[in-house]
Design a protein that fits this description.
415 residues, mainly alpha, Growth Hormone, Chain: A, 2 domains, 13 helices, globular
Length: 415
């Protein structure tokens, strides 16, 4: 893997540029959208939350069929169409004047985003050798954080202006960013559609990702580990302001720390992850580090102002170390355990972990951590550690299943 923060020229760099283009728009959108819908459109905050929850729930359901579409109809064309659909969905928010249109737009946006993520993974698998995929995904994660940071800065300018025109400018920026993303993806070579050879099961049935129990278990364990996602954006701000003496501005500082660390060190953190063994060990180490982070965060309650600040910074450092290790390990597992002919479909299921964690995580973690306090932090850390240790046996089960399917499939491939 290259030491550079920039991926090699060719398809890898084009994929990174596509990631950068739409992450800048997304960063601006995430910063401003809630205030636009509540203050400009006039929706009740609870209804905004409900609409987004419904939208991401729909997104989690369509990831698999849209990933299957990428496998069968071509990853590049599907990714381009879904990038255009995402831009159109963003633009439709401008016309929202009530709750029902908002929910419909949110469903379209989340569905297109989920499908685009699966199609991109299928495109990546078709263009990049297996040994280089985790390294490239580390580059893409660094690029994502850089783009989100730039976009958040642009969104901050819109928030400072506080006008309807400024908010609409953000939506226009995000929509255009997905059009640019689609244009960049068009520059990539077409990926030949793999032969979808079904694996025979009992009574003549063929296996799909929803029947692949070992892979589904790996995806479920990864979803538990992804419950860390709402920590930085929702739980820690509430924890800091309600349970500690630390100043509110620390929320922003911890966000900058996290995004900066991922941007600078994710590639290095993924360097040693090259196969199933190293991936499961990375996930297991991340589980221990995440448990330590939860313990440290719990210690910030009741501490004096500057002690609380120091403890929270240490906890945030531990969290981002765990995040980078868990991300690298899960990327490797998600590709290595999926059949090459069904990468989009399998990535569609694996990617639902993000939408499920973002949909259920805020409600679950707010009650567990902010309301319950220290016992909740310890329970979360213990659950993360248990899931990280269960990942090893689950991955070995899935690998054995994949090897068995390959043996069954082999006679069908012989003329």
């Amino acid at each position: 893997m290259t030491n550079s923060l920039v991926p090699p020229a060719g398809p890898q760099r084009v994929l990174a540029l596509a990631q950068l283009s739409n992450s800048v728009g997304d960063g601006a959108y995430y910063t401003t959208s809630a205030l636009y819908f509540t203050q400009v459109v006039g929706l009740d905050p609870a209804r905004v939350g409900l609409g987004l929850t419904v939208g991401w729930a729909v997104g989690s359901l369509v990831g698999v069929p849209l990933g299957r579409l990428a496998d069968r109809r071509g990853a590049r064309g599907t990714a381009v169409l879904l990038a255009l659909a995402t831009g159109l969905a963003v633009a439709s928010f401008v016309a929202v004047r009530g709750f029902v249109p908002f929910v419909l737009a949110a469903c379209g946006y989340a569905a297109a985003q989920s499908g685009l993520a699966a199609a991109r993974q299928a495109l990546l698998a078709g263009l990049v050798p297996a040994a280089e995929r985790t390294g490239l995904l580390a580059h893409l994660q660094s690029t994502l954080n850089a783009g989100l940071a730039v976009g958040a800065g642009l969104g901050g300018l819109a928030l400072h202006a506080g006008t309807r025109a400024a908010y609409l400018g953000v939506f226009a920026l995000d929509a255009v960013s997905f059009l640019l993303c689609a244009g960049l993806l068009m520059r990539l070579p077409a990926v030949p559609r793999p032969a979808l050879v079904p694996v025979p099961l009992r009574k003549g049935r063929s296996i799909g990702v929803l029947r692949d129990r070992p892979y589904a278990l790996v995806a479920l364990l990864n979803t538990i580990l992804l419950l860390r996602l709402p920590l930085l954006s929702l739980v820690l701000p509430l924890w800091i302001t309600r349970r500690t003496e630390a100043p509110a501005w620390l929320v922003s500082a911890l966000f900058v720390l996290n995004t900066g660390a991922v941007m600078l060190f994710q590639v290095r953190a993924a360097r040693g992850v090259t196969g199933l063994g190293t991936a499961t060990r990375a996930v297991r180490r991340a589980g221990w580090v995440m448990l330590a982070a939860c313990v440290v965060f719990a210690l910030s309650a009741g501490a004096s102002l500057w002690v609380a600040v120091g403890v929270l910074v240490i906890g945030a450092v531990l969290q981002v170390v765990a995040e980078m290790g868990q991300s690298a390990g899960s990327w490797q597992l998600s590709f290595d355990l999926a059949p090459e002919s069904r990468v989009g479909e399998y990535q569609g299921l694996f990617g639902t972990g993000v939408t499920v964690a973002r949909t259920l995580g805020p409600l679950l973690l707010t009650a567990l951590l902010v309301e319950w306090g220290t016992p909740g932090w310890l329970l979360l850390g213990g659950a993360m550690l248990a899931a990280s240790y269960a990942m090893g046996p689950a991955a070995r089960w899935a690998a054995c299943r994949r090897a068995e399917e390959d043996r069954v499939r082999q006679p069908a491939l012989v003329p």
